[in-house]
Every structure is written in C-alpha cells, then in structure tokens.
Amino acid sequence: MLPLVPVYAAGWALRAAGFLLGSEPVRRLKWPVVSVGNLSAGGTGKTPFTIALAKLLVAEGLHVNVLSRGYGRRSAAAARVDLTGTAEEFGDEPLLIAREASVRVFVASRRYDAGSLAEWEGAIRGVHLLDDGFQHRQLARAVDIVLVNSEDLADRLLPAGNLREPLSALRRATVFAVPVDDEAAVVRLRGLGLKQPVWRFRREMSVPEVAGPVVAFCGIARPEQFFAGIERSGVTIAARRVFRDHYRFRATDLRVLEWMADRSGARALLTTEKDRVRIGELAVHLGQVPLLTVGLRVVLEDEAGVAACLNGRLGQ
Predict the structure, then answer these.
(1) Which regions of the chain carry the CATH code 3.40.50.2300?
(2) 205-298 — its CATH code?
(3) Given Cys at both, which of 31, 78, 198, 274 links 108, Cβ 3.0 to 4.6 Å?
C-alpha cells in the first residue's frame, strides 16, 4: 500500500487547497460549534470523550446537542436520535452518546443539516458538539479539539497507515487532548512546533465481574486495546473474535459466539458498548450464556480548566 500514499496525499492537498482558496464552501450555523476529532481512522476514544465533554458543558449550564454523521445508518436525511431506536436508524455512536450523555443528538450525512434541525427544534441558544469533526471542514467551528496519541504521531497516511490527514493538518487544532500516560505525544507535538494547549484525559474501562473465563469479541478500530483492558482487570479470555469496525451483527454471529463459549468453557460473552448497541434485540437469539458489556469512559484531568477555556472561546 505504500506506493499509493503519494496519491492519497495529493488528493488531500488538493482538497485542503480548495478550503484555503474558498472553492470548497464552508457553512456556518447560528450557534457555536465545538468539534471533537482526530487524525486516525478510529480508536482514540472520540465517542467517550464527546460524552464526557457534553456532560461537563451541561454541568456548566449550557444547552448542548451533538451533531454526527451517523455512520452506517440507512438514511442520509437529518433526524433526531430516538433513545429507543436502532443503530441501523441512527448509527451506533450517536445512539450511545444520546443514551450516555442525556443530550439531544442529531444525525445527517451533512452535519450542517443536522445542526439546522437542532436549531429549529431549540428554543434556547445552545452549543453544538461536532462528533468526529476534524476532517468535516465544510462546517465552521469555534473550537477544534483533536485527540492525539504517540501511536498516531508515528503512523503513516492511508492506505499504508491509519492517518486520514498528514501531521501538518494539526496546525488547524485549537487544543490537543492527550492521554495522561502519553508524555511522548506531548514531546512530539512540541517538536513539531505546535504550541496549542494540551488537555489531559484518562480512559477508564469497567469490566463486569465474571466467575470464570469469557469469550471477548468486538468490532472496533483497535481491538487490541479492548482485549488488553479485559486482561488487565484480571478476567481470563478463553477465546476472542474480531469483527471489522462498525460491523453489523447477524443472528448467526451470536450463535457462533455461543458455540465458542461452549467449546472453551467460557461463562459469559464480553463486548464493547458500541457493539452491544449494534447487536440490539438480536441478543434474544442467545441461550444460557450471558452477554455482558464493558464500559469505557473518559475522565478529564482538569475539568475546571477545560470549562474555563471553552467558556472563554464561546463567549459565555
């Protein structure tokens, strides 16, 4: 794939030039937009970070909604996420954010349309959180938060690596969010001449207690993080299964997983919150083996500092 990287890079440069020269239209919503994004094709914790940020801003007294593409949904039209809906209707991440953050979430293939619907429904001026928005430059934003880790900073562009943009794109960021235990990422950012503020955060997994081994499975961008977190908690993985990112489960998949549990002597099936959202009511096809969910949340190290920074930039 390495020979194709220059082709991808040329395409990115052409698109970037379009925004710089004004040939690519950028639309502006009435309410301020705070974007949460990254450079890689997944796995940095954008969804739990967005949930944590939404809760923080609500605690600050702001009216918050989230705008998302709704990856994998059947329709491209703008819609408000229904908590009782399915991943096929709204996408797994928007549904999870709506349930966990208790804020309104709007989806559309064009995030401007999602924001317009949010403003049409909102009687009070609010703040839009743009989920996975760093590359969605068609929508103007007041703040660009970019999640960064040392793994991404050492990676290559697609298709040889996982980066959707070169490291030079980080100049657009307003602030970086870096895991607390990843000092190497901060050193690398400063070495690149990037002086933006750095927010620190922790990712905390909550693994259910199980009296015995488990079958662990997931369909996420970096499955090794999921499996490693389970093992760190002291739970033994008897068997594991990896599906592609955003995989749409079928009843036959669950029967195979149950067969794996029977063969390996596992006492439960363990998966991520996003995978559980996509499984939905298919869980009725499982027999006696319980399906348990591993929680993942982000904790901001300096919530007061983050809130003050955002309030200042949003004019609150």
Answers:
(1) 205-298
(2) 3.40.50.2300
(3) 78
